[in-house]
UniProtKB/TrEMBL annotation:
Name the UniProt record assigns to this protein: Predicted protein
UniProt xrefs under Pfam families: dsrm (PF00035)
SUPFAM superfamilies: dsRNA-binding domain-like (SSF54768)
One GO molecular-function entry: RNA binding
The keyword rRNA-binding is assigned to this record: no
UniProt source species: Laccaria bicolor (strain S238N-H82 / ATCC MYA-4686) (Bicoloured deceiver)
Domain of life: Eukaryota
Keyword annotations: RNA-binding
Coiled coil region boundaries: none
Keyword Glycosyltransferase among record annotations: no
Domain DRBM: 3-71
Length: 76
């Protein structure tokens, strides 16, 4: 699985942006948990992710946020 969280952190440092903040929410029963994560940079939502565990949801949110950040700086 790609490490979008690390890539996002590196790009934020490179472009002198604040580091991303991840808001985590868990729902569902223990045997079928669903994690929802929202990533913000400078209090602006950059992405959301959902997964069966925290890591998958965080990676999904970071992937969306990284794509958005790259569009903003024309590095697509």
């Amino acid at each position: 699985m790609p490490e979008f969280v690390n890539q996002l952190n590196n790009k934020c440092q490179h472009y002198r942006k604040e580091m991303p903040i991840y808001e985590e929410k868990r729902s569902g029963p223990a045997h079928a948990e669903v994690w929802n994560i929202i990533v913000t940079i400078k209090e602006i939502e950059y992405g959301r992710g959902e997964g069966s565990n925290r890591k998958r949801a965080k990676e999904a949110a970071a992937e969306v946020a990284l794509k958005r950040l790259m569009e903003e700086v024309d590095e697509v």
